[in-house]
Design goal:
The protein is of the alpha/beta class and 348 residues long. The protein has two domains: 157 residues, Rossmann fold; 157 residues, Rossmann fold, CATH 3.40.50. The protein has a seven-stranded parallel β-sheet, sandwiched between helices. It has a seven-stranded parallel β-sheet with strand order 10-11-9-8-12-13-15. Strand 12, helix 13 and strand 13 form a beta-alpha-beta unit.
Length: 348
């Protein structure tokens, strides 16, 4: 921290951890005077986001020297589960009103937290206000010693990407495999071909997560269909949606295709990646099928209804039963972020 200059004093200090948290606070930060914004994060991926929001942004992976580093701030806002004792203690002792925003404690993590309840009670002694994601989170946080808790919802729902283009919705059953990773395209293709043999009008649109895999996925598709009477195209070349299988080889298009999907197969969940944002597809009310590896998206999953979570061996049966798949929906369609904004403004 010696080469990490302190933040300017008397501001609104947001502290986050992950890339997702750092990105989620961007629309919240915009609700305040830009000159007052101070940002820190504990990860390099998080810093890659916040450094573009404000010059008063710092990478802050340790808390050992915080008593000497922290300058007095008006408000400290910490995201989700970054319960640093020293961070809250020192910031509050120097006059900050302290807030835990988007607070959560998962069902799986709660027993571990309870073992150290004595420690978390000490942490919460220095937190003035807690905004929980759900009522279940609020109950668990209260059991750990949190006070002055209010359920606000998940702020990640504020910044759900919206369509940037309007593509014609195909008349046929349209399946979008979104943000797929290595090992998932082959699984999805094999099971789609089973569906296709019984539903000739079905269409598959594959959107890989990483652009460097476009060529590999194209080769895989050609291999799968070489002896079958099926058509294939790369969307980036001709923009066609007429073929049986379409590879979207462009970035920033995923949400545009979610909008025209009947069924979304969510990638990153059939291999141990941890899943991707359910809300991006759920905003359109399509059916969503996910694998079992959703450990990075539990908070978003709690805000979405109608998601089918399966083992990869079950994918064929679910696709063949497409008529009975439930429609997804956002459980909380509007976050009462104004409550939080008023709270911050009241102490400035």
């Amino acid at each position: 921290m010696i080469k990490n200059p302190p933040l300017k004093r008397d501001g609104i200090w947001f502290h986050s951890c992950s890339f997702g948290e750092a990105r989620a606070i961007a629309p919240v930060v915009e609700m305040f005077d830009k000159d007052l914004i101070r940002l820190t994060t504990t990860t390099q991926t998080g810093f890659s986001v916040i450094k573009n929001i404000s010059k008063e942004s710092r990478y802050l992976p340790f808390e050992t020297l915080l008593p000497f580093w922290i300058k007095p701030q008006k408000v400290l806002i910490v995201l989700e589960a970054e319960l640093w004792y020293m961070l809250f203690l020192v910031a509050k002792s120097k006059g900050a009103f302290t807030i835990l925003l988007n607070a959560r404690v998962s069902t799986r993590s709660f027993p571990k937290y309870k073992k150290f309840a004595w420690f978390y009670r000490k942490v919460f002694e220095n937190i003035d206000k807690v905004y929980a994601q759900t009522s279940e989170d609020a109950k668990r946080l209260s059991a750990l010693g949190a006070k002055n808790i209010e359920v606000l919802g998940n702020i990640k729902l504020i910044s759900i990407p919206k369509p940037t283009k309007k593509y014609p919705k195909p008349q046929s059953l349209t399946i979008v495999a979104g943000s797929t990773h290595e090992g998932e395209e082959e699984l999805i293709l094999e099971n789609f071909l089973e569906l296709k043999s019984k539903n000739k009008d079905a269409k598959l649109i594959i959107v890989p997560r990483h652009p460097e895999r476009f060529l590999d996925v194209e080769s895989l598709i050609w291999k799968q269909i070489e002896d079958k009477d099926l058509t294939f195209s790369r969307f980036g070349r001709d923009g066609s949606l007429k073929e049986d299988i379409i590879l979207v080889d462009l970035m920033g298009e995923l949400v545009n295709f979610y909008k025209i999907a009947n069924i979304v197969i969510l990638g990153g969940s059939f291999v141990p990646v941890g899943g991707h944002n359910f809300a991006e597809a759920a905003q359109f009310g399509c059916s969503i099928i996910s694998g079992e590896y959703v450990f990075n998206q539990r908070d978003i999953l709690n805000s979405v209804d109608g998601v089918i979570i399966i083992k990869k061996e079950e994918l064929k049966d679910r696709l063949l039963e497409f008529d009975s798949l439930p429609k997804s929906a956002l459980r909380v369609k509007s976050i009462e972020i104004e409550k939080f904004v008023r709270e911050v403004e009241s102490v400035l």
